[in-house]
Every structure is written in structure tokens, then in C-alpha cells.
Design a protein that fits this description.
3-stranded antiparallel β-sheet; binds 2-amino-4-trifluoromethylsulfanyl-butyric acid; 4-stranded antiparallel β-sheet; single chain; alpha+beta; 268 residues; binds cobalt (II) ion; 15 strands; Creatine Amidinohydrolase
Length: 268
Amino acid sequence: MSITIKTRSEIEKMRVAGRLTAEVLDYIKPYVKPGVTTGELDKLCHDLIVDVQQAIPAPLNYAPPGHQPYPKSICSSINHQVCHGVPSHDKKLKNGDVVNLDITVIKDGWHGDSSRMFYVGEPGIQARRLTDITYECMWKGIAAVRPGRHLGVVGAAIQKYAEANGYSVVREFCGHGIGLGFHEEPQVLHYGKASEGPLLAPGMTFTIEPMINAGRRDIRVLGDGWTVVTKDHSLSAQWEHTVLVTQTGYEVLTLSAECPPPPAFIAG
Ligand code: MF3
Ligand code: CO
Ligand code: CO
């Protein structure tokens, strides 16, 4: 398979899937409070997606090669967990935690994929700074998207900004093409050279989802086969949007009423 170029009508379906994905994140926000379990958050999102949106939570039973089927409908990654944290009714969020909730919705066959960081009560200054810088990293990557450039501009912008702020970029996981497939070509690296990678062209759709660590970039996978943590137990943050390459730049497909506004360095 190569990079697919979406048609106008396919892009319209991607917009619908993207909007639904963002609306799940809007919906769950008020429930992210000290004492709630990640299992409860998973159930709330599952029921909204299935019963209200009449869509499919893509993670549920997702089984890429070499993995056991993913057992839940969302990913919930707390503090030093990097990504793919598995929700559990035994895992209560506590005051000061920061948690990433990652939602992927399939509507009419098309995928939308987005994640946000949430504060549980009042996190400390370091967790808030990492969360903010990681959000800016994602937007540095998004803002670099323009047809005719190499895809490597995305990772180069993210790595530069993360490292200038004293943080490290996780290398083992990347963004991805998305459409009828959950994970399509290309791989969207969050580090590297601006002159590398395929040329961007209108109609490409992919995610940008940097995982940024306060400490070293090294990770390991827990015994559940899914949950990824920092080796040094330093805090990790992630934000994710699904993006379309347009004739002149980009369109973010996973925006909604309550998603945080772009940082000030994004014009318009
Ligand atoms: N949503 C994740 C991503 O951004 C993938 C989760 S796969 C799962 O690519 F199986 F862990 F859900
Ligand atoms: Co993704
Ligand atoms: Co995701």
C-alpha cells in the first residue's frame, strides 16, 4: 500500500468521523475528576460512541501484528505512561494526575483519531508545563504542513521545539496515515530532518501525535502487552489531531466546540 489521496466525498466523511472523535473528548472532560476510574471513563466513551453516535470505537479488539487484541474502547495514559494505557475499574485517578485520553471513532467506515491531556484536580507546575509545551509541539508540527514540502518538516519542527524546551521526543511511536484504515502509510515521525520523507500533497490525511517526555526518551512496554511507560519514570504527555493536507496548507479534522484553541503562534 502507498499513501492514499482522499476524494472530496471521502474528505467529507473524514470530517464527520473527526468531528465525532472530538465530541467524545468534549463529552468526557467533566468526568475527569479525582476518584473516577479509567474503566468508568472507558465505559462512558464506549456508550456515547456506540449508542449516541452510532459509530465504532476503533481500539476495541484492535489487533495489529504481534499484539494481543486491545481490550478496551479508549486509551488512558496517566503521568509517566506514554501511550496505550489500558483503562481499568481498579485504576482511580487522583488529584495532581495528568491523563491522556485517546479516542478513535469509525463512522461510515472512516476513522477520526485525536487525543488530549486532562488535568485531574490541580497538577503541579511541571506537569502543566510539559502538557502545554507538548500541545505547542503538536501545533508546531501541524503548522508545518503544506503541499510540496517533505513530510519530515513535521517531525523537524516538533523535535526542535521539544528539545529547545529541555524535553525529549519518543521515537518508537509515530503519527500515521488514516482513512478507511486506522493506521495507514505514511509513518509521521515526530523527529528528524525537514528534507526527508514523502512530498505532501492535497488530499493526504494523517495524524500528528507527539509523545514528549520530561526526562529521557527511552520507553518500555508493561506486561499487559500494551501500556507504554517512560523507562526513567519521568512524566510524559501527548496530544493528537487528524489533519488533511489542503491546496494551500492544512485543515484540522478533529476540532470541536471545546477543544483548546491553537497557541498564539498560529496566525488567524
Ligand atoms: N489511538 C492510537 C493512535 O493514536 C492507537 C491506539 S491502538 C490501541 O494511533 F489498540 F491501543 F487502541
Ligand atoms: Co493515532
Ligand atoms: Co490516537
